[in-house]
Amino acid sequence: MPMPVARVARLAAMLGLALLAAPADAVESAPTPPPAPRATTAAPDLLAALPDHDKVDYAFGAFQRGYYLTAFEIAVELAKLGDAKAQSLIGYLYANGLGLPQKPDEAIIWYQLAARGGDPQALVELANLSALGVGSPVDKKKAANYLEEALGKGVVEANYWLGLLCIDPSSGVTDYARAAALFKAAAAEGNIDAVYALATLNREGQGVPKNEPEAARLMGEAARAGHLAAQVEYGIMMFNGTGVARNQKTAAAWFKVAAEAGNPVAQSRLARLYAVGEGLPRDLDAARRWYSYAKATGLTDPWLDQALAAEAPKAEEKPAALPGVDAGN
User: Fold this and answer.
1) 89, 191, 241, 317: which one has the fewest Cβ atoms less than 10 Å from its Cβ?
2) Distance between CA 165 and CA 154 in Å, rounded?
3) If we measure between CA atoms, which residue out of 170, 114, 178 comes closest to residue 146?
4) 9-26 in b/e burial notation, b at 16+ Cβ within 10 A?
5) Are 58 and 85 contacting, i.e. CB atoms less than 8 angstroms apart?
6) Residue 141 pLDDT more than 70?
7) Coil, strand, or helix at residue 59?
């Protein structure tokens, strides 16, 4: 079962994705919160209406509709018969407290049963819990072992998570060259986070020879796919002409796309450009507005504080020089 977006973001942060970060990556946009569950109680009528209780699809169907206790009841009967998918579902319900008390220690047991029973996706969930220290002490080496096993069983998403562990000094498996290879494999499967990570490694020369044009190509690919941090980084690279032809107007457009999506770093960068009129018309009101959005998230910029607090220059005066969109946060 795929991990929810919120858990994906937390795991990425803990495994060391921030180690890749240039200034613009220091603040990630908040993930979209999942919709509120429609119901967490059993639906006896639904359960009684099932023509055949021995099909795991019914359990997942109930889960997807928000009938978590119904999903649990069906899954338990199947789990007793050794159904690994049903065991994973029970683990997921316990791990996330969906319709049941949140019991990570019991989730681990169910995931272990599922993994032994032939569900390799359970190994990814076990890696997630081990890396985060949920239900047991943090053990990133164990998480790596789970992911290695999952990868050996064809779970392609394990490439990305294992790549993150390979750039985390606390994991005991630090290997930037292998991380680059894992991210490349994950990117080939369509993982946009992996494309972004690979772009950053190419830009920094970590695990691969430094290659700014390739970094820009990959960053642009991730940006066009909707990756907010990549949109900010691509804007910075384009503004500065790093690996790509310098184009302040297009850079400003990328900042605006990410700013409108709620990324505070992009909002701050866009405010800088409005403040001096680079890449778009000078507009102090717009600069103050976008900066206010960034500040509301706790992100401050001393240069903007000073520039916007000063009296607006006369029309014939040249505005203060922009220190560079990637200077500070």
Assistant:
1) 317
2) 18
3) 114
4) bbbbebbbbebbeebbbe
5) no
6) yes
7) helix
